Amino acid sequence: VQLQASGGGLVQAGGSLRLSCAASGRTFSTYAMGWFRQASGKEREFVAVISGSGGSTYYADSVKGRSTISRDNAKNTVYLQMNSLKPEDTAVYYCAATHRGLHTMPGRYDYWGQGTLVTVSS
After folding, report:
1. Number of other CB atoms surrounding residue 9 within 10 Å
2. Block means of pLDDT (10 residues each) for the chain, length 122 residues?
3. How far does Cα 67 stand from its chain's mean position?
4. What angle do CA 51, 48, 44 make, to 5 degrees?
5. Which of 17, 37, 18 is nearest to 78 (CA)?
6. Buried b (16+ CB within 10 A) or exposed e, 35-68
């Protein structure tokens, strides 16, 4: 599986962005898809994950209520809608795929996209 993340950019605090992650291959719906982020000088951290069917989701407390993960299996794409953005949301955002279920640990994911930079100005 090859993943290509996009949609990052510069946004003011309080604004919104929608990240997309396009996947190759015909088995996209068999993968749980996660979003992670890594701020400069910090470890990669979990943001959200969605099951293969899209029926189950889980969020980090830091984004819960402000972000929505969704997927369109017909388009082999997963999305992360982020609202009410804060400067502390500034990071490179990565999408990842796993067959191991809804995991929050980066080590449980098998495939990673290249990352897209989100910068939130105050």
Report:
1. 13
2. 96 98 92 98 98 97 98 97 98 96 96 97 96
3. 10
4. 125
5. 18
6. bbbeeeeeebebbbbbbbeeeebbbbeebeeebb
